[in-house]
Amino acid sequence: MSLLAVDQLVMQFGTRLIQKDISLKVEKGCIFAVMGGSGCGKSTLLKHLVGLLPPAAGTVTYDGVDFWASDDAQRSALRSRFGMLFQSAALWSSMTVLENVCLPLARQTRLDAKQREAKAREVLEWVELGEFANFYPASLSGGMKKRAGLARAIAAEPPLLFLDEPSAGLDPISSRRLDDLILDIRHRTGAAVVFVSHELPSLFAIADDGIFLDADSKRPIAHGCPRELARQDVHPTVHAFLHREVPPPAVPAATEATP
Amino acid sequence: MPQPSLSPRQTLGTLLRSAAGPLERPVRFLGEVLLSAGAAMRGHWTFRREDLGRVLADCSARAVAIVLVVNLLVGAILAFVGAVQLAKFGAGIFVADLVAIAVAREMAAIITAVVIAGRTGAAFAAEIATMQANEEVDALEVLGLTAIDFLVLPRVGSLLLMMPLLYIFACVAGLLGGMIVAAAMLDLSATAYLQRTAESLTWTHLGLGIGKSVTFGALVGMVGCYYGLRAQRNAAGVGVATTGAVVTSIVGIIVLDAIFAVCANALDI
Q1: Which segments cross the bilayer (chain B) (predicted)?
Q2: Which among A230, A231, A232, B268 has most CB atoms closer than 10 A?
Q3: What ipTM goes with this model?
């Protein structure tokens, strides 16, 4: 049974179709990339997966349990199986970095206050933010915020991590350090990672599998490891994306009826 | 595809929902806050004590100075207007009655609520709207924490607790302002003024004022949080939310005060 399985998901705002026919599976320890051009719905897909936005159709299952068909108590239990790093890091600005990391531990573990603080400090040391534990998010750089957000996501050791553009806006060195950190997290905790990214070096360096969402046809047009997709004869848009080329002019697609 | 027929209960619900129209979201928000408050009173609260303490301090100790200054001036203005008119009839001493009753029944609660709407209600809206824009509210929801439980409840609860205290400070300041003007314009001694004030003030006046302050506090807290949570996720959204919260709160305070006046009149209190 897959850690995460998505079947025939349809993303829609009102009558505006964003994407359809999205199906994917993420197994334990897999690093899965969600690729695609700007505005194709990658971050929206993550919102459907983590329970922030109900899909128009389709299912999202964790270990065989349908998230959107579950009641509040079941959803709460399912939420403890994943952590999320938001694109903006989304650290709670009224709390210190340490308090940010402690809150998921208070929600998702049975540790007492001292144990929570010790665990949070340990995780912050791991992401090299130990000396910034008592800083507020406003005092951190972009890269430090991302690492603090990652520390918050992994603190309760969930088996699945969702990362929304983890290296966006970072310099190449910080981006590379974050990639190494993600690989280290997978190695040490065995967690699976689903991440959204535009960054080709990151995609090629860490992803084992992936899906490519196309904004024109509003459906996935490629599945597989980005490194292998780059070597294969794939859809011209995927080829252009993975080789950083200007894509050929789009062929007008047949009109699709919205579901 | 044929539409399934609705039961009478579903039909009634659909009709009420369409009739409620623009009120649907505020009413749903109110219901969620009440349910969350009920759960919190049964011990199922999820907000952090530190956040409650921070908000409590912000809407009490840090608000006292401005509440005192504004109410002192309002008391002085009331006394000034009253003194000019009452002195014509040789009834200057009754300026103490005028100030005491006006401050305790109306002005202390209204002016304090307006100050808090502009200060604390606006801050609630701006803070929560900024959290929306920064995805901080989403981060709470991914953790299974609802914004109502974690953000709204401590803010509304803080204002519910602190508004009566601010009202008492406001009453004292208003009476003091009146006394200063009465002493300056009418040569009334502090003892005479205070004696007259004590004779005119009743527990009914004070109870009505406290009741209003609690109601206005709930209104300001909920309106600020409501506008913050429904703000658009950009800088403009923060501004719109803040303005909307202040305007709605002030209009709401006046409307509620009018309802209080009608009810008090009907109940002869």
Answers
A1: 63-87, 93-117, 165-186, 206-229, 241-267
A2: A230
A3: 0.88
